[in-house]
Amino acid sequence: MPQDDARITALMNASNDLAELGQFAEAIALAEQAWPLVGLKDRSNGMFVWVIESLIHDNFAAQRWDEAANWAQTLIAHKQPGDLASGDYLWLGKIQFEQGLHDLAYGRFDQAFRESKAAFQGEDKKYKSFYQQEKARR
């Protein structure tokens, strides 16, 4: 396991460096190499969250909505239930919003807001505006 952790760390550090440079395709490729070393076997391992959240972020930044949605759904389905946070739901809501799946996005935004009233803090204002308009309409 320590050997896997060292390999994961090296891959993810390089992936994060590429993402910071806006080289998302290359960053995704490295994170995808790390994923089989982490996988679903140890969801409590911080490596699980690091790899999967990087894959969500980088696919989102590259506007690869379907891939980002798959990773966000995997995170929600496999993260320890007590560890789910508003940001986990917010990611999927943002992706669904960008996919034009507004009913689904509203549901995820609502989950995020119920988890934390500050869920939209630091996010693009369009997501909070959409949520508030939909909440008022429903």
Report what the structure shows.
It is a single chain. This protein is mostly helical and 138 residues long. It is built from seven helices and no strands. Helix 3 packs antiparallel against helix 4. The longest helix is centred in the first third of the chain and has 19 residues. The radius of gyration is 16 Å and the shape is globular.
Topology:
Elements: H1 2-20, H2 24-38, H3 46-61, H4 65-78, H5 86-98, H6 102-115, H7 125-137
Helix pairs in contact: 1-2, 1-3, 2-3, 3-4, 4-5, 5-6
Can you describe this structure in just a few lines?
The chain has 138 residues and is mainly α.
Described by the principal axes of the CA atoms, the overall outline is: globular
Number of β-strand runs: 0
Mean pLDDT: 92
Q: What structural category do the secondary elements indicate? A: mainly alpha
- Poorly predicted regions: none
- Our count of helices gives 7
Q: What Rg, in angstroms, do the CA atoms define? A: 16 Å
How many angstroms separate the termini?
Answer: 50 Å
H/E series: HHHHHHH
- Let me know the largest β-sheet: none
Strand content: under 5%
Roughly how much helix do the residues carry, as a percent range? Answer: over 70%
Defining traits:
single chain, 138 residues, mainly alpha, 7 helices, 75% helix, 0% strand, globular
